[in-house]
Each structure stands twice: as structure tokens, then as C-alpha cells.
Amino acid sequence: MAGGRPRLGRRPGRTRPPGVRRPLDPDHLGRPGQSEAGLHDYANREWDGLVRDLYAPRWAAYFAGLDTALATGTAPAAVDWFARDDAWAREHRRYPTAPAGDPYALAEEVREVLAAASTA
User: Fold this and answer.
1) Which of 12, 34, 82, 119 has the highest count of CB atoms within 10 angstroms of its CB?
2) What pLDDT was estimated at residue 81?
């Protein structure tokens, strides 16, 4: 869960002025300068919010651009992916700090969908 990690980065520290973030909190991974450091799209980003609010819209935009290009017979439009990610990082959304839902019920639902798909 990403919810508690940004809060850790906002704690005052002995080496940073109060309020200065640690350089690798989840909000910070998409910031300017991080891409050049090789941290853009860093591993283990399956935290709540990243997939739903960053990656899902990114992939939707990517495939929509491909669909448009195929339909019009043109090259896909250029997209500034870094600018999109940076805009998300600067939103400072609040995410849960505790899990929610029933993982067993969700796993059962996934199993049923996969079982139905395998018999189709």
C-alpha cells in the first residue's frame, strides 16, 4: 500500500529541513531528474494508486492512440509520457494506509471468470 510511504517522506529528519521529501517516495518517482537517474518505471510499483491512477490511464491513452492511427492510416500521435507521469506525481493524492476488501472473495471471483473462460 502506498498510503503510508509518502507520509514517511514528510517526517522531519536530521539531514533535511522539515517537510522535504525523501527522494524515493512513491510521489517522487515520476519527478523531473528521476528519469535520468534510471528510476522512471522503477520495479515494485504495484502500489495502490499507481496502477489505477497512473498506469491504467497511460495504457488506455496508448491504445486509444494506436486505434486512432489504425483507423486514420496515420502514425500514432506523439505523447509526452513523462509529462503525464509528472502531472500525476504532482497531484499528491491521498491513498489508503490499510488494506480494504476481501481478498478471498476477489480470488474466488477471478477463479470463476477464468474457469468460465477456459470452457468457452
Assistant:
1) 34
2) 92
Q: Are the CB atoms for 25 and 9 separated by under 8 Å?
A: yes
> Which triple of cell numbers denotes residue 115?
474457469
Contact 50, 26 (CB under 8 A): yes
State the pTM of this model: 0.52
Q: Mapping DSSP to helix (H, G, I), strand (E, B) and coil, where does residue 14 land?
A: coil
26, 3 contact by CB (below 8 A): no
The rounded distance, in Å, linking the Cα atoms of 73 and 65 is 12
Q: Is the pLDDT of residue 69 over 50?
A: yes
- Whether 5 and 95 have beta carbons less than 8 Å apart is answered as no
Give me 109's grid cell: 471471483
